[in-house]
Structure formats: C-alpha cells, structure tokens
Amino acid sequence: MPALHHLALRTHDVDRLLAFYRDWFGFVVARDMRPRSVWLALSEGVLMIELAEAHEPPVTRSLELVAFRVTVEERVLLRERLGDALEAATEHTLYFRDPDGRRVGVSSYPL
Q: Which end of the chain is more exposed for a tag (fewer CB within 10 A), N or C?
C-alpha cells in the first residue's frame, strides 16, 4: 500500500511558513536549501516548503486540509495554545489556518 512520500507546500514567504510549522509542530529541518526550499522531517516522509514563483497566485481559504496525527494529550495542549486561531473542532480534530491561509488540522482520531 502506498504511503506519503512528501507533501510540498508552495509559498511566497518560505521563512514565515517554516517558522509556523517548526514552532507549532516542532518539525525539524531535514534539508535547508533556502531561499528555494526547506524540507521538514515527518515520521514518514517529508514536508517540503517551496518558494512560489512571483506569478503564482496566493493560497486561498479553501476547505482543503492538511491534517497531522497527534496524541490526545498533544491535541489538548494545542487547543489551549490556539486560542482565537482555532477555526473549528470536532471530538478528535482541531482546525486552523497557516500563515498563507491553508487549512491545517491536528487529529487524534484512531485510524
């Protein structure tokens, strides 16, 4: 069965998006090729933050979602930290936006 190899997020501000994913999730830089891109290590695979070309449109506030698995305890702590940034929540998942407007979730739903 296929597994996630990498997820690439395009942005016009690599440093800002890097700070968000590093500070909120504790992701560690696996490869730094700034200003072009930064790769963050996931438990399996890589989250790539890539510099968008000047002509690329910005991310819109769509309902597409990038969700990361967390423990119940981590989800509870993140909910406290999110405050007003929390957009929605279910029993197992919290939803908020990254600095580009991308919908992000953290979920403890048992798969």
A: N
Hey, what are 38's tokens? 């930064």
Q: Kindly provide the b/e burial profile for residues 65-78, where b requires at least 16 CB atoms within 10 angstroms of the residue's own CB.
A: eeebebeeeebeeb
> DSSP assignment of 5-41, as one string?
-EEEEEES-HHHHHHHHHHHH-PEEEEEETTTEEEEE
Q: Burial level of 43, CB count in 10 A (0-12/13-18/19+)?
A: exposed
* Token pair listed for 34: 């700034």
Q: Among all chains, which residue has been given the structure tokens 């967390």? A: 70
> Furthest-apart CA pair in the chain: how many Å?
42
Name residue, tokens 């830089």: 29
Query: Please, where are the H alpha helices in 29-99?
Result: 72-82
User: Which tokens belong to 8?
Assistant: 């690439």
The secondary structure of residue 15, as a DSSP letter, is H
What integer is the mean pLDDT of 11-33? 96
